Amino acid sequence: MERGRGEIGVDPVELLVALLVLGIPGAALAVRFVLRPALREIAEAIRRPREGLSPELERRLAELEEGQRLVEQQLHTLIEAERFHRELESGPGPEQ
Predict the structure, then answer these.
(1) Range of 42's domain?
(2) For residues 53 and 61, is the Cβ–Cβ distance under 8 A?
(3) How far is the CA of 77 from the CAs of 18, 66, 68, 81, 86, in angstroms?
(4) What is the pTM (predicted TM-score) of this model?
(5) Cys staple from 19: which of 23, 29, 64, 80, with CB 3.0 to 4.6 Å?
(6) Cα 41–chain centre separation
(7) Who has greater pLDDT, 8 or 76?
(8) Distances from the Cα of 68 to the Cαs of 32, 53, 57, 82, in angstroms?
(9) Lowest-pLDDT choice from 7-11, 21-25, 27-31, 60-64
(10) In this structure, are 87 and 65 located in the same domain?
(11) In the predicted model, what is the mean pLDDT of residues 87-91?
(12) 44 and 56: one domain?
């Protein structure tokens, strides 16, 4: 295919080669410099021994656990009340 005068055309193969030659190494370098510090911090956090919780966090955790226990008790009470209510609505059972 001949190019006419004044036309600017880009061969798709040349564009693909340029992308492969310049784009992939550029992307690899960017990933290395962006992800490497983050991965290093994650690895260090995993290797580090677990440190004790601060007193404030321990207090808040205890409050959350107590709240969870109260919610479970209230849920159990509501379930029992609903069962009793259904038994009352169903009427007297068969006489024996």
Answers:
(1) 12-50
(2) yes
(3) 71, 17, 14, 6, 14
(4) 0.40
(5) 23
(6) 18
(7) 76
(8) 44, 20, 16, 21
(9) 7-11
(10) yes
(11) 85
(12) no
> Which residue matches tokens 């321990």?
58
**pLDDT of amino acid 32:** 79
How far, in whole angstroms, is CA 84 from its chain's centroid? 41
Tokens matching residue 9:
């055309």
Quickly state the pLDDT bin for 2 (edges 50, 70, 90).
low
Average of pLDDT values for 44-63? Answer: 76
Measure the CA–CA gap between 74 and 3, rounded to whole angstroms: 82
Cβ atoms of 31 and 37 closer than 8 Å? no
What is the token pair recorded at 75? 């849920």
Buried b (16+ CB within 10 A) or exposed e, 33-63: eeeeeeeeeeeeeeeeeeeeeeeeeeeeeee
Could you tell me how far CA 22 lies from the centroid of its own chain? 34
Contacts of 30 (CB under 8 A, 6+ apart): none
Residue 38 lies in a domain: yes
Q: Assess contact for 9 and 3: CB atoms under 8 A.
A: yes
How many domains, in total, are found in the chain? 2
